Amino acid sequence: MTAPLLSETSLRVATMATDLSGEEPGDLYRDLLTRTDTEALRVADAISVANPDIVVLTGMDADPDAVNTFISDYLNSPDDEHTDVGYAYSYLAIGSSGVQSGADLDGDRVVGGPGDAWGQGAFAEQSSTVVLSKYPINQPDVVSVSALKWDEVAGNKLSSSELSGAVAASIPVMHNGLWDIPIEYRGERVHILAAQTEPAQSSYGFGAPRQKDQLKVISDYIAGEDYVVADDGAKAGGIDENRIVVTGALAQRTEFTAAALALGDELGRDDALNDSGNFVIPNRGWNVLGQGRIGAEAPEDFQLLPGATPESIETSDLIWTDVQF
Question: So which domain of life are we looking at (predicted)?
């Protein structure tokens, strides 16, 4: 059953952690061409049920051919029982993951390969973030923060990472990146801040202190702290007076759930929905009308606040929140 829209003026924002990734460039596209990819069908099922206006998919290769195939052959396939969901706009985030560090980051005494790349990526587009939207994305105004160095973060925790020398001076703070994606919604600009922080399976010994600083960068970007410099060299100007939704895989390592929830508190949203490290956090500029999650067994209806708690739905995969001006 499709989760109903609450009104004609509500915006449904969703996120879902996926495993839509290949070992080499083009692998995902080739897998999706079969129209039988199990993970793609699972993700499409959840999106079809929730029917979000904007969905942030983490862990997906930012491959245009793969994304277009996913939309056409899984979300809008005439050969399945899904309710078709159309997305005219997309943003494929490519950050620092997959760029070789030149050092033995994973401690295997061999330099090279995914373990020694920033973000442990085999190639630049691997396991990144894909944003699908029913509303126009202002592509020229998208801000990417992926090259910011860890040692440039004010009050950083780099000293507790045991990194030193050239690696400490060059390592980016973000696991892959932070993206401020402006959506044009009913004459207003909405900022979707999508991020994918340190993954649960990270083998880096410095993952814990860097995770904390990744969340700090998100907060400081919103606040307009000068040290947060975008990839194009512009300093963060601050967006705390605008409508913002922070979303993505913010705390897949469970010990950082509290830190991610603290980010929600900063935004005036102590009721932000989260599950398994995935978050949808609107700032105080929104009215939250409802929220829920879609898993193997979809809920019969949306959950009105304050009833939507992590225990209220049996299986959780995709999470969504309805917001309104």
Answer: Bacteria
